[in-house]
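ok so heres the complex, four chains, lmk if somethin looks off
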Amino acid sequence: MWDLLNDPEVLARITPGVDTLEQTGSGQYQAVLHIKMGPINSTFNGALQVVDSKEPESYRLLIDVDGKIGQIAAEGHVRLAENHETTTVEVEGGSQLTGRLASMGQRLLSGVARMFTNQFFKALEREVAIRN
Amino acid sequence: MGVIGQSIKRVEDQRFITGKGRYTDDIALPNSTFAALVRSPHAHAAINNVDTTAAAAADGVVAVFTGADLEAAGVGGLPCGWQVDFKSGDTMKEPAHPVLAATKVRHVGDPVAIVLAESREQAADAAELVVVDYEVLDAVVAATQATAEGAPQLFDDVPNNTPFDWELGDQAATDAALASAAHVTTLEYDNQRLIPNAIEPRCAIGDYDGARDHYTLYTSSQNPHVIRLLMTAFVLGLPEHKVRVVSPDVGGGFGSKIFHYAEEVLVTWCSRQIGRPVKWTASRSEAFLTDAHGRDHHTRVDLGLDADGNFVGLRVKTVANLGAYLSTFAPCVPTYLYGTLLQGLYTTPAVHVDVTGVFTNTTPVDALRGAGRPEATYVLERTVEQAALETGRDPAQLRSQNFIPAFDGVEQEGYQTQVALQYDSGNYGAALEKALAAIGYDELRAEQAQARAAGNGRHIGIGFSTYIEACGIAPSAVVGALGARAGLFESAGVRVQPTGKVTVFTGSHSHGQGHETTFAQVVADGLGVGIEDVDIIHGDTESVPFGMGTYGSRSLAVGGTAIVKSMDKIKEKGAKIAAHLLEAAEEDLEFAEGSWTVKGTDQSIAFGEVALAAYVPHNFPEGLEPGLEFTSFYDPANFTFPFGAHIAVVEVDAETGVVAVRRYVAVDDVGNIVNPMIVEGQVHGGITHGIGQALFEEAVYDDSGQLISGSYMDYVLPRADDLPSFETDHTVTPCPHNPLGVKGAGETGTIGSPPAIVNAVLDALWPLGVRDLAMPLTPQKVWQAIQQAS
Amino acid sequence: MSVAIKVTVNGQTHEHEVEPRQMLVSYLREELGLTGTHVGCDTSNCGACTAIVDGQAVKVCTMLAAQADGAEITTIEGLAANGTLHPLQEAFRETHGLQCGFCTPGMIMAAWQLLERNATPSDAEVRHALEGNFCRCTGYDNIIKAVQHAAESA
Amino acid sequence: MIPVAFDYHRPASVDEAIELLSDDAKLLAGGHSLLPAMKLRLSSPGALIDIGRIAELNYIREDGGTIAIGATTTHQQIASSDLVSANASALAQAASVIGDPQVRNKGTIGGSLAHADPAADYPAAILALGAEIVVRGSDGGRSIPADEFFIDLFLTALAPDEIITEVRVPAADKSAYVKFPHPASRFAVVGCAAASAGGAVKVAFTGVANAAFRDSGVEAALSGGLSEEGIAAAAARAADGQEVLADHFAGEEYRRHLAKVFARKALATIA
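and the predicted structre for the whole thing:
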């Protein structure tokens, strides 16, 4: 599971909105995100980083991207717990919006975070299912 | 005649109700370009680079300018008009406020570049192509955090983000009084930040005429002369006589259009660069981020009472959030417009106030409808009510027993407060009595008791606010001594035309107050002409003598008096002409109802005939100049001090936390009233704005300095269906020091109402154990307070 | 691209080529010079831009000029018939239902719609019908009175 | 504010509109969600397909015990329809509290449903009334039950090449929609619809979670009927198990509480 969650290709597939992900260093990626959600339809460019990596139990995923309508800074703390045959994955996170997104998007912020978290897990489940 | 005191229908309404008002954005100059501003999305960041290449090459783009361009051209920063030095005597820290940020941005919305294009659309498109390389810095947002150790610093040369601190009153006496008080009521709270929200967004058009080397700036402003002075003398270094500032119809201001803004400088300067008109109109989103905000105080207050309920001392400590820069009048709002009002209506013998002004990474804060006085009134009236609730006293009785006794300022001297001001005249008990009678106080208390006894879930509350405020700003010598960098007189030219019609050129400037009507009434009354024979000209530096504009409820008390002074001169000269024509002695004449009459005879001559003679001086007093026109500048002797008693009745739905305002009674004393209809309208609007602060409005920033209530989707403006009908009445205690006896009526409602509403909600919920609530009283907050209390 | 539109505004027919993104309010203000319809916000909340489009009060800051092709539009400039003020216009002056005047055209148009649908509204109904229009100056009381006054005089 | 430039199409028929649909095109009906987002440049589609004038999409009629409403029928038309009020009052009530009168004059039911704002009013009523959303795409038409329509934030079962053509609302014996509006946006902080038809009661919420939802917990708890006690017990379970939205105006705890209060109010109205 740890390997899965640290595989750039998988990361690109399971991180919501990621269009392309290019490795630029150890745990460092250049990312293009495309967010299409209701009224919002916009592209963001920036960095995705894996930091504080403590194999095999946790790392933090930092997303810092910039678009015409604002910036998104998001952080996900991914924790894995091995329990016999199963691995529990927990993700805790928060996000900060800048610019027009911040002043217009407040009422939706908690919902968006939840939706993205759910999408992340659904995508992860799919990846796991494929491998099994 | 009796024109004064009549609810004359407004002269200006004809154009507004037919869509013929002319606001700045309605002006379309030929060959105009349109400006779009590139603004910082960050609250605090260093600017590494601004790349305008793509924007400059975009369709329709005429020019792009950055902070570096302005710096290179020697354009100065926006000046501050008031200096408040430190308690230590050190000079106020006054960091530069660049028109376009060149090296650092300090709040979201700080402008970085301006794009000029052939159309609004092209300007908006190209602005998105300007690439700014920011290095984001930590931001400080809350006033209370600004002076914390390790807090991000906005300016290198302003330690602790503190440009000034200030105190007033006798600290030792106050501390001693509180130490020996039988009961001390203490509150600590935020007077939250508000966003002004004039419904007309700001707009500015610069128009440089190369042939005449002459500039015209059209701007949605409350004081065009002040803008011209600040911009020419301090920012652009232009010859003042070569610049005309026109402020046509203004769609509301509430203070936010007093100040000199970057966009006014930019369109003027850019127009010169490109030789074409430049027009900028704020979007509402920009207005939220760039119109100077209001309030934002963090305050701790202690009120001491003796065993009988007499106030013995009041101590106030406030941190005022000034935002990222010193806006035009920012330093005076939390000091001289605030601390000096903390005596209130009460005889409290010891008062001390201590204020620290701080910078944060937020939109600059300045005067907003009431400016300092709503904050002071909230300190006092919330605390007095809390003291009544804590000590089980009737809040009306507690107030009256501490009221300054009635004084008219003529027979009895003005009242000298502990905090610098001398009140002009007052009869505070009368206003409260009238309000109590109007609301039916005893019956209401009985109904409340009944509801409580029945336990039927109806939570009725009655809240008071007996306020005083200072208007008619201001005696120039006084405010000069207090740090104002301008005089605060007002001007009026009164031109009697040959046919006896009258044109008035006033330095005041209406942004909805109805000057064209009220001033015409003053003139009609003074000269005995018809209202329709008077025209009021304002808002244009080319036609009006230098004037200070409209704010602080000053127009009638100061601007109106200037008109009266000019009319006095006209009548004096007219009497000479009349005496000559009537072959009578001047001292035998009296002027009434538009004619000079030889006392005790039927010999008289009409005003119009005298006017004609002044311009066709065939038969004229020897040595007298022809013409009948005078300009006066009136510098008031003192502030005026309107006061009043407001009572709110609310019902709280404990299940949802929703507060319904059931009734609202306002008895205001604004001195003599020229047009009761207009005064009532002003009062209504003010109360609504104040209820907005009490229940709805709030500028919310997140920790990183993003304004998250940046649109009408989140920022709650009161609407028609949020409010009851108001019950308004007056007492009349004339101002003794101006000829009209008027005090000012523009802000009473905003000043009086917030504590009345909050007090009423506290009164309703006190039996449930709720002891305090922070504005705005949103349903969630009220519900949570009830949950926590029970 | 551009779109050909034909609209009737205050009884006059106009034909123009407009950019698809041009809002009806900017068409009225900038192309036709009818500046009585104002823009006060960008989120369709304030109501200052309200005009009558095919008999319906519409926030024309949130309608494309292209969408108005073929429509009959009445703005505040066209409300007075043959030089006689509409009862609502008279009433706003009579009861001091305006101060700065900026929200007034939109307010009158929203009120027009109400009275067209309900000739004798209660005060509460008037307040409710004006929920899409902000006034920062008057505090609404006198606006409510104006609408009632117009209802009575109509 | 000014949108990014786009192309504009005004098809004469639904079929023509479907042909114009693409990844970069958006349907424009009333425009009261889309145009503000475009003016703020939060959204910048390359083309708009204006279906506002397709006459075949604007109607309210009875169709064998069901109310059929064309997709471009406005909130105002629905709010003032006697047919809707008599048979599906929750829907009429929801329509009557959307935005403000001017917004209701332009906004359409199809536009609102397709947009699927988490705080829109219709979805609760649509769910409680057990409506079906009729859509047409390049491969023909289908009818999506309300229960399957709302998926997540702004996400519905509508495929990218599909257009909503009609909403079919079965007549209910009684139904109601009650709402706690946000004082600024007038969106629902909490909106609750309840409907009874043939003895079965359905309860649905909007504003509470990422998507409007039927509250099976409340519905199950109503076995005791619509007595005052039965309602109270059922309402107390409102939004149980839901991931609840939170913002500055209303945090999770307060929203959950409001859901209970408004469930009770809605149920009391149909009792």
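quick notes: The radius of gyration of chain C is 15 Å. thats all i got rn
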